[in-house]
Design a protein that fits this description.
By secondary structure, the protein is α/β, with parallel strands linked by helices. Helix content is 37%, strand content 19%. This is Purine nucleosidase.
């Protein structure tokens, strides 16, 4: 059983992660933090509240997170992928609820101190809030059970630039802090998320389900599938990046992982935001104090993951 603090920028595939988690008896969403990324952190908080209403979890608190990255200016561009409202134009009316008054980083630190060793963080957006929480509480890696992040492109091209994946690119400094902090950390990068491709037949099956959650999944994703026509895949459809990370948190056996020290490129004119894994297989003799290794997902049982997400949507 996992007790989860969800850090997220919903976000179309983030929405599918909400729908997935809400259907799992072994997952408890303890709290949500919003972050800038796909759209502003104010909008992503509003969307998180809407999604919690949709999945009948209206008691879960949502804290607004960082409005901007640690060091660089706020980067835009997510609207093209996720729509101006972050939910493919189908966000609908706002939730009657409001976010809680503390920030997402403060909320995470408070909860981690209250429940030492118990909480898992599922990070589905830029890592700004997790980095800020670690800067507030350097013991955070010991206070959390684990962190699972959707982010990075280790042995494949990036998506937002040729070399960088969007969540890392939106705040490379934060990602560099988090990957080096000593968390029990699993990175779920594009290497596996792009293979978790929900194609036309998969979506047709969801469209047959007469349930508000399945209907919402189809509506919210129409915009995303349209955007992903740019991708050179065999089949129209879309990758379920964030829902895969959620599934991996609950069942790590869905992916094969390698352990590597991973750094984030911060200075390259072409490569800023790239995730660089030391894949040599031996420690750096020149740097005995090198950062601890993290788990990097390199292979995925995509048919099984897609079947599980189907079941969560009532297929
Ligand atoms: C990641 O970027 C966002 O657009 C998605 O929600 C996902 O978290 C994929 O690169
Ligand atoms: Ca996301």
């Amino acid at each position: 059983r996992r007790r989860i603090v969800l850090d997220t920028d919903p976000g179309i595939d983030d929405s599918i992660a909400f729908l997935y988690l809400a259907a799992q008896p072994d997952a408890e969403i303890v709290a949500v933090g919003s972050v800038h990324g796909n759209v502003s952190s104010r909008l992503t908080a509003e969307n998180a509240l809407r999604l919690l209403d949709l999945v009948d979890l209206p008691h879960v608190p949502v804290a607004v997170g960082a409005q901007r990255p640690l060091a660089q200016p706020l980067l835009r561009g997510g609207e093209a992928v996720h729509g101006v409202d972050g939910l493919g134009g189908v966000a609908g009316p706002p939730s009657p609820r409001q976010p809680v008054p503390e920030s997402a980083a403060e909320q995470l630190v408070r909860l981690a101190r209250q429940h030492p060793g118990e909480l898992s963080v599922l990070a589905l957006g830029p890592l700004t809030n997790v980095a800020l929480a670690y800067l507030l509480e350097p013991e955070l890696p010991r206070l959390l059970r684990e962190v699972v992040c959707m982010g990075g492109a280790v042995a494949v091209p990036g998506n937002i630039t040729p070399h960088a994946e969007a969540n890392i690119w939106h705040d490379p400094e934060a990602a560099e802090v988090v990957l080096g902090a000593g968390f029990d950390l699993t990175l779920v990068p594009l290497d596996v998320t792009l293979r978790t491709w929900a194609g036309a037949a998969w979506w047709n099956a969801v469209a047959q389900v007469d349930h508000p959650r399945a209907r919402f999944a189809c509506e919210v994703t129409a915009h995303y599938i349209d955007f992903y026509k740019i991708h050179p895949s065999d089949e129209p459809g879309c990758p379920l990046h964030d829902a895969l990370a959620a599934a991996v948190l609950l069942d790590p056996a869905l992916v094969r992982c390698e352990e590597h020290r991973v750094t984030v490129e911060l200075t390259g004119a072409q490569t800023r935001g790239a995730t660089l894994a030391d894949r040599r297989g031996f420690p750096s003799p020149e740097d005995p104090a090198a950062r601890p290794p993290i788990r990097v997902a390199t292979e995925v049982d995509a048919p099984e993951v897609l079947a599980r997400i189907h079941r969560a949507l009532g297929v």
